[in-house]
Design goal:
Residues 1-38 are annotated as: Disordered. By secondary structure, the chain is of the alpha/beta class. It has helices at 3-6, 23-26, 57-60, 64-68, 77-84, 89-95, 100-106, 124-135, 159-168, 185-194, 216-221, 224-227, 245-254, 271-280, 297-303, 323-332, 349-358, 375-384, 401-410, 426-435, and strands spanning 11-12, 36-38, 41-43, 46-47, 114-116, 148-150, 174-176, 200-202, 234-236, 260-262, 286-288, 312-314, 338-340, 364-366, 390-392, 416-418, 440-442.
């Protein structure tokens, strides 16, 4: 399609969203003569607004009874817009092709605060280009209403697609590109530099992303103090395998307003990276370093500097963390609500005791696969953490039914208990069920049901 056709007042075809062999595109309503396939790739075409009245002979022959069945046309505009607000981007584009009224309603600015695209075969770069051009018609080259873009799992997204977002959407507040492994640092830098209101960024699974920073041009234009003030508060870098301490240092220095940070399976991160993080990002409430095998008790000492601000911590499968690290967290982070320490085999009853006595407001605890935790640790937990709602003891070899009964007798609000692969009796499980009536028990005992 030519540049001339791109400039016409038009609606993107559903072919932009669905590949030709998609079930949603092969039915009678989804088929269109205005889309074609070249070497297996869907090519998006643009369309003029539908006519006010459909003039197909078969439609003219419709009976009066059939016309009366179209009750949806009797709904007022605000109700139609409310219905359209539940549709994903591709379905909204289809609705815009039904008739002129639906066209006008489907392109109501209130419906285009979010673009959501999913699928491995979608030509996302092309889709974002066409959609942003359409949304920029009233304000040339600037899309002021778009605040959220979610293109998770779209593996064909490249830097070109992110450049489009960065240049056209200055009001962007949320961007999710998880699993899009073709994007690089440069495109991410452009987004955070040109979208000053961006608060939520999910680049999990983007293996080429090693840092979050401003572009060089933006850094030169801004003062050194202002240049560090990227507004991101939520950052998910799960499975960014090549992220290292130096990259985390840069992230911390530029994203000082972080409150939620997830670094799951960032296997190159060490205690030194956490030290950088705590220097700059003192407002973190939720932090995950699960499966970061180089994080040890020294890293826990750094995390403990967050003190009462820390509410959520995941250190699952960090094998170098022992009771010493747990003591640091328990001593300084008294308002901790969630702790995932599954697979930290160095944690014993002493660590659980110190945690229970200092973090009495704990609501969720996972100490599964901690073979050194026994009924003694559960007793300390039951006598101090009365607000406990979720407890996972999966594969804790030293746990017995006696420990579970003590927990059930004191933690009446328990809602989830995982005792899979634990040697507990049916009587103990029934005791838990009687005292914690809302509790869902995950177990592997075939005699209990």
């Amino acid at each position: 399609d030519s540049d001339l056709s791109m400039r016409t007042l038009s609606t993107p075809s559903p072919a932009l969203i669905f590949p030709p062999n998609s079930p949603g595109f092969q039915n009678g309503r989804g088929s269109s003569t205005s889309s074609s396939s070249v070497t297996g790739e869907t090519v998006a075409m643009v369309h003029s607004p539908p006519p006010t009245r459909l003039t197909h002979p078969l439609i003219r022959l419709a009976s009066k009874h059939q016309k009366e069945q179209a009750n949806i046309d009797r709904l007022p505009d605000h109700s139609m817009i409310q219905i359209f607000s539940f549709l994903p981007t591709n379905q909204l584009c289809r609705c815009a092709r039904v008739c002129r009224r639906w066209y006008n309603l489907a392109w109501d600015p209130r419906l285009w605060r979010t673009i959501r695209l999913t699928g491995e075969t979608i030509n996302v770069d092309r889709a974002l280009k066409v959609l942003t051009r359409r949304l920029c018609q009233d304000t040339p080259n600037v899309c002021l209403m778009l605040e959220t873009v979610i293109v998770s799992g779209c593996r064909r997204l490249t830097d070109r697609g992110l450049y489009t977002i960065a240049q056209c959407c200055p009001e962007l507040r949320r961007l999710e590109v998880s699993g899009c492994y073709n994007i690089s640092n440069e495109a991410v830098f452009d987004v955070v530099s040109l979208c000053p209101n961006l608060e939520h960024l999910d680049v999990s699974g983007c293996s080429k992303v090693t840092c979050i920073s401003l572009t060089r041009e933006a850094s030169i234009k801004l003062s050194p103090l202002h240049g560090k003030q990227i507004s991101i508060r939520y950052l998910d870098m799960t499975d960014c395998f090549v992220l290292e301490d130096e990259g985390l240092h840069t992230i911390a220095a530029h994203c000082t307003q972080l409150t939620h940070l997830y670094l799951r399976r960032c296997v190159r991160i060490t205690d030194e990276g956490l030290r950088y993080l705590m220097i700059y990002c003192t407002s973190i409430k939720e932090l995950s370093v699960s499966d970061c095998r180089f994080v040890s008790d020294f890293g826990m000492r750094e995390i403990a500097k967050l003190e009462s601000r820390l509410r959520y911590l995941s250190i699952a499968h960090c094998g170098r963390i022992t009771d010493v690290g747990i003591r640091y967290i328990a001593k300084y982070c008294s308002k901790l609500r969630y702790l995932n320490a599954r697979g930290c085999e160095g944690i014993t009853d002493h660590g659980v005791e110190y945690l229970a006595k200092n973090c009495t407001k704990l609501k969720s605890l996972d100490i599964g696969k901690c073979p050194l935790v026994s009924d003694t640790g559960l007793e300390f937990l039951a006598l101090n953490c009365f607000n406990l709602k979720r407890l996972s003891l999966k594969s804790c070899e030293s746990i017995t039914g006696q420990g579970l009964q003590i927990v059930a007798a004191n933690c009446f609000d328990l809602q989830m208990l995982n005792v899979q692969d634990c040697d507990v009796s049916v009587d103990a499980l029934r005791f838990v069920k009687r005292h914690c009536k809302r509790c869902i028990i995950e177990h592997t005992n075939p005699a209990f049901f």
